[in-house]
Amino acid sequence: MLILFSRILFITFIGLIIVGCNTVTIVDEHKSTNNIKLADTDSIVLLGRRHLSQHETELDYISCIGKQLSAGEGRLNVIPEQQFIDSMYPYFDPSTAPMNVKNLDKLIQHPNILKKLTDYKINYFIWIEGNTKTIDKSGAISCVGGPAGCFGFATWKDEAIYEAKIWNLKNTSVSGKIHTQTQGTSFLPAVILPIPLLASVKSHACDGMATQLKEFLN
Amino acid sequence: MKKLSLTFFLCCLLLLTACEQSMVLETNLDIPQPIDTKLPLNMAIFYEESLREYVYTENNDDRRNWAITIGPSQIAIFDQVLPSMFNTIETINNLDEANYQHYDAVIVPEIKDIQFALPYETKTKIHETWIKYIIHIQKADGEFITDLNLSGYGKSLPNTSIDFLLDEREGLVISTNEAYRDLAAKLIVSFQSDPAINEWIEARPK
């Protein structure tokens, strides 16, 4: 009886690993121009939208894309987000940052702001809007006497929706938009010990966005 | 015996006062140096005593004997930001002084409200601060130009929230600093875009 129970448990666990934790990413791209070819000396900056406190783009998502863009083949010079925001203070803080290209045009009329951007060798801004949320969850786990005595099953579904807008500083226009939508389900079965089978939704959304951006900017 | 009773009484008193949840916090705010976008104005700033010595106090069941000293650090922030905004800026000790010094205008900041939210109150992992100011702008002779109603919001980062369980003060200092950073950013941008200020600058004798 015990052997049968162990086999069922093992098969269920393997099945969960196979079907579980799956993530699906859909990438949608809209370009106003052909792919941009950045010069070796050019830099870019990735900025997250944080003007609405409930829907802020996560700092770690922006730094994840930054790391991917500045590594490997076709690497780009990416200025760290916080360094850029601090050095451009107060014009790129969450409540004062330009919300559209026209406002950027007004901003660069000021010689000191334009000089800073020129010193950075920035010709393109990448604004990223969106976040990762849990959209569905079910099940329950109860633990008696600490984590070594748990039983139950919990599952939750995360969704990551992000949109990148590439602004061209030279002609103050939008050069392209990339939209990614990633969904993934995580499982937490618990028989004595809880075993988390996590879907890395944000990480997949980062991979998808970074790949598309690199292709667009190379 | 009498000596023993007195010692026991003092120990009890010490225990009682030690258990009381009190918060005396002196903020040390810090924001980046703004980019110079100077307006061609020679300005004065007048800090009223109520602003200089502003202490946020609260005393209720949840926030026992809170005293958060903001006065000196907020003045340090104004002193850091204003020189990046104008040709010249000088601090005056009374408003009458402005009349004899040929300033274009005088800035008089007034703090209207400050609020804090703690993680256990909002069921989030962050500390939050809201501040509200009215920045009175008047000509050197006292004639009204405009009032800028500005608010600043700041919160602590969620990824440091575990530390806050150990140190409530750190969370409040971070969120208050962010709120002042937001307020100062809005002050700079508002001065460049406010219609009443632009109208006054245009109408000024050159």
Measured as a percent range, the helix fraction of chain B is: 40-55%
Strand content of chain A: 35-45%
Instruction: Give the beta-strand count of chain A.
Output: 6
The largest interface is: A-B, 16 and 17 residues
Give a nutshell description of this structure.
The complex is a heterodimer of chains A (218) and B (206). By secondary structure, chain A is α/β, with parallel strands linked by helices.
Overview of this protein structure:
The complex is a heterodimer of chains A (about 220) and B (about 210). Chain A has about 220 residues and is α/β, with parallel strands linked by helices. Chain A has one domain (about 1-215). Helix content of chain A is about 30%, strand content about 35%. Chain A contains six helices and six strands, in the order H-E-E-H-E-H-H-H-E-E-E-H. Chain A has helices spanning about 1-20, 60-70, 80-85, 100-105, 110-120, 200-215, and strands at about 25-30, 45-50, 75-80, 120-145, 150-170, 175-195. In chain A, strands 1-6-5-4-2-3 form a six-stranded mixed sheet. In chain A, a hairpin with a 6-residue loop joins strand 4 and strand 5 (about 150-170). In chain A, helix 2 packs across helix 6 (about 200-215). The longest helix of chain A has 18 residues, at about 1-20. Chain B is of the alpha/beta class and about 210 residues long. Chain B has a single domain, classed as Lipoprotein like domain (Double Stranded RNA Binding Domain, 2-Layer Sandwich). Chain B contains eight helices and eight strands. Chain B has helices at about 1-20, 50, 70-80, 95-100, 120, 160-165, 170-195, 195-205, and strands at about 25, 40-45, 55-60, 65-70, 85-90, 105-115, 130-140, 145-155. In chain B, the strands form two sheets. A five-stranded mixed sheet of chain B has the order 5-2-6-7-8. In chain B, strands 1-4-3 form a three-stranded mixed sheet. In chain B, strand 7 and strand 8 (about 145-155) form a beta hairpin. Chain B is elongated and about 55 Å long. Residues about 10-20 of chain B have low confidence and may be disordered. Classes of the chains: A alpha/beta (about 220), B alpha/beta (about 210). At the A-B interface, helix 5 of A face helix 7 of B.
